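user: At home tonight, take the chain set out below, taking as long as you need, and be ready to discuss the fold:
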Amino acid sequence: MTATDAPDGSTEGPGGSPFGNYIGVERYPSQADRTVARLVVEPHHLNPTGAIHGGVLISLADNTATAMANHANVEANEGRFMVGIDLHAVMLANQQGGEVRAEARVVRQGRRVTVIRTAVTGEGGRVLAEVTTTHIPA
């Protein structure tokens, strides 16, 4: 990842989700309106057909959405971590190899419940999955 890849010209290295780090999620610093992450597809991310395993796409979306929920609620929750309590995913397409990107945005932020919508895109900006998650403070 280079500084020019990030929406704000910066990058964020390890230190996010341990599981996200384990599978290779590279997350950029959250902004007021979105959180963006990417994953370079490796052979262990593929299913038997050579396409990206659905669990990898969902994990990328979930990690990105949770980062957005935590960023959006950093002041309101006095440091309490936002956890996902519901996840709805629609798998629209897939690809073999390359890179995938997730962009998460707040749909609704209430006093306790935050809803995030995350689009996972592949090569050429093709939408691979649309994921909606609901988060509450732990």
In short: DSSP finds two helices and six strands in the chain.
